[in-house]
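INTERNAL AUDIT FORM
Audit reference: QA-55
Scope: verify that the stored structure record matches its stored sequence.
Auditor: D.O.
Record contents follow.
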Amino acid sequence: MGQFLKFVIATIVGLFLFIFLLVAIVGVSALGLSSKEKAVKVKPNSILKMSLNREIAERADDDPFANFDFASMSPNTKMGLNKILGSIKKAKEDDNIKGIYLELSGIPAGLATIEEIRNSLIDFKEAGKFIIAYGEGITQKAYYLASIADQIYLNPKGLVELKGYSAELTFFKNALDRLEIEPVVFYAGDFKSATEPFRYTEMSEPNRLQYRELLNDFYEDYVEKVSAARNMDKMTLEDIIDNLRVRDAETAKDNKVVDELKYIDEVYDVLREKVGIDEDEKINFMSLGKYATGVEHKKKTGKDKIAVLYAQGGIVDGKGDDSQIGSKKYAKIIQKIREDDKVKAIVVRINSGGGSALASEIIWRELKVAKEQGIPVIASMGDVAASGGYYIPCIADTIVAQENTVTGSIGVFALFGDFGEFYEEKMGFTFDTVKTTKHSDFPTSIMLNRDLSEDENGIIQKSVNDIYDLFLQRVADGRGMDTAAVHQIAQGRVWTGGQAKANGLVDIIGGIDDAIAIAAEKAGLEEYNIAEYPKKKDPIEKILEQITGGGESAKQSFLKRELGVQYKYYKRLQSILKMRGVQAVMPMELDIK
């Protein structure tokens, strides 16, 4: 009887939850649809308020549920760079927007993403409108953005972080030794250091060299642009950073890193004065999130289209999930794009540290076919476009990157782990095999339970070498270079966008709008529409995926909350365990602080 009552209660509760979710879906859908029909109304004398404290993706979701995650029952934390840039551009022309208020602390975004936003804000100021920045604790990245403001205000008890760049790499060799797991590594390229965490306890000299030069280039760019924006001598700023002269709010003001020390209410008084209202009047703030709902990214008239293909995440074989660049999925998208007679050019917006070499080749091939059909292909690089993330767009007519984009890493590797001792000594497992041929148990997983034979080692290394040679050829063909010349700047080495322009891997320093303008020029277009790909899923479909666990978002959301800063280690381990075949991945995830 007890079990029967439990079953009945569970059924009732389940039914109640289903009805609740159904009502929520219908209600939010109605609100979302009605909001799309109404343009965002901006009151006169308004100020666009930008608090960039959320993760910034390449593209925003603009469906009714974009700000809510039904898997975790919590707000969605991502913003879209396309919407941020579009909002700033729209605000520049909007007579009701008098200025921008940057309320800054930290910005969880890469350097190239911040660079695009910063450049867009500089363009905004050309309309004669003001930008005021305020923070309580302003990180180094946030200060880079704030530096272009007319005035920077800091809380009297706040702090500005200025210390220079560092990159921290995590090594797993000691842990593997304790577990008695032996890494088996094959690679091509002296700088292809993606497997170093499994082989060493510290960086190799070639790896240390490339990171030092990478960070030095980023730092030089930072100092030059911040000192120019703040009308400060470059050497003075270098001295401030190198000697940690900014240690509290007072030293920030004394060193002219900020203009004044003010509490938030005092900053609001400054904003009231800027828009010419009385001290007791309410400021008309327009939030970035709300303003962005009415933004159409680079929308123009005309029947012709420029396809913007967003490729963000790891490159994987097959379809992949929403956070990955799946070869099957993207090949199908590109086929569809090139079959559309209205598409006159393609812009590939790439933000990826690479992945499967085979998947990269498949996507590269589809872009090549598009070019052969006479469709211009332009590449726009985000924070990272390295290894497989460079392989895919190297076919482009023009490659556009920011000064601080991380790119290159032209090299490949294959990684296995000898788990024999671990299985036997730690787990008590033993294995025995019956084979029909000499190599019928040739490994298909990275987890080995036996040693590789000399023949098998040779086969794998040849495969790695062959794919590296193919990678060199793809780049040479795309860039109009000799393979020997490509090899000199390849070997797995990473470069900044500025360095890549100097060595021929990048054509132009700029952002996605520059890439779109180049695409329009090459296609001979004056009037056109932007068609974004992949096409967004239906909102109801996305919610049902989250509720039923059909996508990765539910697990990811839970793990991010539970693991916090440790989530990146879990994510890296998962990507390693899923590796199949030869990989074109940049030398570790670059965590610049």
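Auditor finding: record pair retrieved intact. Confidence is low (pLDDT under 50) at residues 28-37, 64-75.
Action required: none
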